[in-house]
Amino acid sequence: MEPPARPQSADGTRRRARDLGIVIGRAAPGPFNAITDVPGVRVGHTTVRRPPDVHSGVTAVVPDDVGPRTPLPAGVFTGNGYGKLIGTTQLTELGTLETPVLLTSTLSAFRVADALVGWMLERPGCDEVHSLNPVVGECNDGFLSDVRARPVHEEHVRAALDGASGGPVAEGCVGAGTGTVALGFKAGIGTASRTLDLAGRCFTAGVLVQANFGGTLRVLGRTVTPRSAGRDTDGGAPVAETGSCMIVVATDAPLDARQLTRVARRAVFALARTGAAYSHGSGDYAVAFGTRPGGGAPVADAELGPLFEAVLDGVEEAVLNSLLAATTVTGPGGRTVPVLPADALLTALTSPPPPLSPPSRPAPPPA
Asked: What is the DSSP secondary structure assignment for residue 276, as one 8-state letter?
């Protein structure tokens, strides 16, 4: 187990989208441009590496004081249901979140859920709790890690939960994103936030993604592939039909579960902007929760447009941040996935677009 992940220093080695001048949307980000800009939300990572076979981990999104006796309003949306999102049926039925949201590797999800239950039962006020709904999402990191080893254990879960903090969030190859791949490049954890005005009141929406899905990367309308970015792809790539993306959305806007489900839908829709293929084998989910269950009058549905836009923009930026923060990883069998190079991305965005091919003419009918 590695020490708790810290945000990368701004030394120019790996930069976020905004550091490169790539600005998505109109709304301004919060101070850290992270899900932790939402008051009362913390993030913790535990990274588990045993090269070359294991590149995995767990990421915890921890709202303050959440519990079975103090649940938060929440919604969930499934874009494609090929996944193991533990706790989704009760979350859908009751519209309440009782635990932190944890992300990990596919076959480790069940151990992580058990460890989360144990940790929660030790929290103040849970002495008499006899029912608890852990929420754990996953992505399959089996291309770069031995998923069958189920390397994430209770001590890793507890370290991520106990080490969760506010402020800047480590991105890329950390926690649950250590072994993930998206859009042909090494990906991982990414985050972003937006501040917005809803009916004359200021709120924040933050997102965190565990990116591991297929498709062709699109940035501001331009496509970027490993080949066009000058990256060697001889190490192979995950099967195009596999992949997943877990998205967590937090907001301090006073929304009910139905409205938060609408927010979760927009988070999954946003993946299309990045080039997601939503393939048969991809588990694409979003969980959205509010941190102010009693915080003022609810926002009217007709006023939610800026929030929807903020979440769409935030998810798009978070996916890009997950790619830009990642580092090249070599897994079992020498399988290597390249990073998205910032210079190649900027070149693609500033170069003239390729000429359009003339439309093909149908062949003349036989004489």
From this structure: B
Give the three-state DSSP class for 187.
coil
pTM over 0.85: yes
Q: Tell me the residue type at 45.
A: H
Q: At 278, which amino acid appears?
A: Y
Contact 207, 36 (CB under 8 A): no
Read off the DSSP letter of residue 172. Answer: B
pLDDT of 54 reads 98
Let me know the angle formed at the C-alpha of 312 by 306 and 316, rounded to the nearest 5 degrees: 145
Residues contacting residue 161 through CB under 8 Å, at least 6 positions apart? 44, 60, 62, 100, 102, 116, 119
Active site residues: 244, 282, 284
Q: Give residue-wise pLDDT tens across range 296-319.
A: 788 999 999 999 999 999 999 999
For residue 347, how many C-alpha atoms fall within 13 Å in the half-sphere facing its CB? 10
The tokens describing 92, both together, are 């859908």
Strand stretches in the chain, DSSP E: 41-50, 54-63, 72-81, 96-97, 101-105, 135-139, 181-182, 185-186, 189-198, 201-212, 217-219, 222-224, 242-251, 281-290, 329-330, 336-337
Place of tokens 């929290």: 123
Q: What are the pLDDT digits (tens) for 7-49? A: 443 334 579 999 999 999 999 999 999 999 999 999 999 999 9
Q: Please name which of 133, 172, 136, 168 lies closest in space to residue 152, comparing C-alpha atoms.
A: 136
DSSP 203: E
Alpha-carbon span 105 to 147, nearest angstrom: 7
Cα–Cα distance measured from residue 240 to residue 112, given in angstroms and rounded to the nearest whole number: 27
140, 25 contact by CB (below 8 A): no
Do residues 208 and 191 make contact, with C-beta atoms less than 8 angstroms apart?
A: yes
Q: Are 243 and 212 in contact (CB under 8 A)?
A: yes
The answer on pLDDT for 295 being more than 70 is no
Write out the H or E segment, with its range, that includes residue 327.
none
